[in-house]
Write a structure and sequence with these properties.
The protein is of the alpha/beta class. 39% of the residues lie in helices and 15% in strands. The strands form four sheets. Strands 3-2-1-4-5-6-11 form a seven-stranded parallel sheet, with helices on both faces. The N and C termini lie far apart (41 Å).
Length: 322
């Protein structure tokens, strides 16, 4: 039975990855910074995984965990990720999203049991992109501290692969959503508001730029791509994306239409909600992932939006019945 270590196992991506690997017969060790906080995404599988409270900024603790459990695979998914945190506490963002990656890679290098490693990188590394769509060879031009930290995490991963022969990969993940997305993200903010409005609990939804575009996919598809990366004979980096762009307006239209409403009757574009530094059009070119990994997303944009709206409707209705 292979063993895997998932940092941030209680997050959106960590929960979907844990489900996938349990299905494939893995023993799972999941790390969290607080044993008692935020485990609602993994409650249904909590008894099947071992949770270890740790500090990713503590080199010794990471070395001890690797020595104790000897994982065959390590997925580094822990990060400060919400858009509301892009500019707050940039030093802490650098510690958690950049230097923690180096500490984890160094712990793997020093371990006598060489684990395969994948770093959850981000499309934010491209920022003010020089080309569209972006591929693995597109230059990095991050526009916020989150993107800068992710760029460091990406390059330190490449350095450990090239100089220390660690089986280390970076998955350059574009926006990936699900019913488990936090309410601070625009996708979930929309679907939750649609559910509330359709059930008579709210009257409007205030958003930033409706014409801002994103390459949106399903988180469950994206963690599958990360697993495929570690099953290859050689480590490499991959853009994981749908290759399609949709605006926030498109997302609103699809979400409201699913419950028989017109988004224009409820959505208000509000400058207060504008992001401080909006990135350029970020659309990924996933051809390499298609060709090498045999990976393609299974959930369409329309299917993703409908999945999220249905989940929020059920959650709100369940609360009403209590």
């Amino acid at each position: 039975m292979p063993t895997t270590l998932i940092t941030g196992v209680n997050g959106q991506d960590g929960s979907y990855l844990a489900e996938l690997l349990l299905f494939k017969g893995y023993q799972i060790i999941g790390t969290t910074s607080n044993h008692n906080a935020g485990q609602e995404r993994i409650l249904h599988i909590r008894e099947k995984i071992e949770i270890v409270e740790t500090d990713l900024l503590n080199q010794g603790m990471m070395e001890d965990i690797l020595h104790r459990y000897k994982p065959d695979e390590v997925y580094n998914l822990a990060a400060r990720a919400s858009s509301s945190e892009l500019w707050t506490e940039p030093a802490l963002t650098g510690e958690l999203n950049a230097l923690a990656v180096a500490r984890l890679l160094e712990a793997i290098r020093k371990s006598d049991h060489k684990a395969r490693f994948v770093q959850a990188s981000s499309s934010e590394v491209f920022g003010n992109a020089t080309e569209t769509p972006q591929s693995e060879t597109t230059p990095f031009r991050p526009r916020n501290p989150y993107g800068v930290a992710k760029a460091y995490g990406h390059w330190i991963t490449a350095n450990y692969r090239e100089h220390h022969e660690v089986f280390a990969c970076s998955s350059i993940l574009y926006n990936h959503e699900s019913p488990r997305r936090g309410l601070e993200f625009v996708s979930r903010k929309i679907t939750h508001a649609v559910a509330e409005i359709s059930l008579g609990q709210a009257k409007e939804l205030r958003l930033g730029r409706l014409d801002a575009k994103r390459d949106w996919g399903f988180a469950g598809d994206y963690v599958h791509a990360m697993w495929l990366m570690l099953q290859q004979p050689k480590p490499d980096d991959y853009v994981i994306a749908t290759g399609e762009s949709h605006s926030v307006r498109d997302f609103c239209q699809a979400a409201f239409a699913h419950v028989g409403l017109n988004y224009q009757d409820f959505v208000v574009e509000d400058a207060v909600n504008y992001r401080q530094e909006e990135t350029e059009l970020l659309v990924g070119n996933p051809v390499k992932a298609h060709r090498v990994l045999g990976w393609k997303p299974a959930v369409t944009f329309q299917g993703l939006v409908q999945m999220m709206v249905e989940a929020d409707l059920k959650a709100i209705q369940a609360c009403q019945q209590q």
